[in-house]
Amino acid sequence: MTNETKPAKKTSRNRRKSRELALKGLYRLFLNSGGVDEILRDLADDDDCAHADEDYFHALLRGVAGQVAQLDQQIVPLLDRQISELSPIEHAILCIAGYELIHDPSIPYRVAINEGVELAKRYGGTDGHKYVNGVLDRLAAEVRPGEFERRGNRRPESR
After folding, report:
1. What pLDDT does residue 42 have?
2. Angle formed by the axes of helices 128-143 and 54-75, nearest 10°
3. What is the 3-state secondary structure (H, E, C) of the chain?
4. What torsion, rounded to 10 degrees, do the Cα atoms 120, 115, 62, 9 define?
5. Contact residues for 21 (Cβ-Cβ < 8 A; gap 6+)
6. To bridge 97 with a disulfide, which of 33, 45, 105, 116 should be the other Cys (CB 3.0-4.6 Å)?
């Protein structure tokens, strides 16, 4: 009898891929109103899933999906338009990065903003990344004022 064990789950998987998968899931949720469990099952077949931090992806998608209304309440005052006028991609990106800013202080605010901007560059509309950057910068100043000001930043003007 051989002593076979399952390979250990990699913990160094790519969080950027996890965010991309969460974006795909939220996009689907916003457009189709499907259930999170169904979306997670479907995205398990996505090529990016093999490279993602699966635990982080699941936690992020479940966390954001469960907090969309609360996230929108914090994001809406920072927008120059109605939230319904945002593309579903920009809305999902703001929710993902907003969730990280608000609920995961282990991620530096600059990383959360940069990851949101990178998602917007890759998946959003032309110059959407600039808009995402501005909104997330104002959100970071609001929800992490100490960290924001320690970096030598001044609080951006509110809209």
Report:
1. 86
2. 80
3. CCCCCCCCCCCCCEHHHHHHHHHHHHHHHHHHCCCHHHHHHHHCCCHHHHHECHHHHHHHHHHHHHHHHHHHHHHHHHCCCCHHHCCHHHHHHHHHHHHHHHHCCCCCHHHHHHHHHHHHHHHCCCCHHHHHHHHHHHHHHHHCHHHHHHCCCCCCCCC
4. 130
5. 43, 46, 48, 49, 52, 57, 61
6. 116
- CB atoms closer than 10 angstroms to residue 55: 12
pTM here is 0.85
Cα–Cα dist 40/61, whole Å: 8
Domains observed in the chain: 15-150 (1.10.940.10)
Residues 76-134: pLDDT tens digits? 999 999 999 999 999 999 999 999 999 999 999 999 999 999 999 999 999 999 999 99
Residue 147 token pair? 């960290």
Taking alpha carbons only, the member of 136, 149, 125 closest to residue 100 is 136
Amino acid at 18: S
Distance from first CA to last CA of the chain, Å, rounded? 69
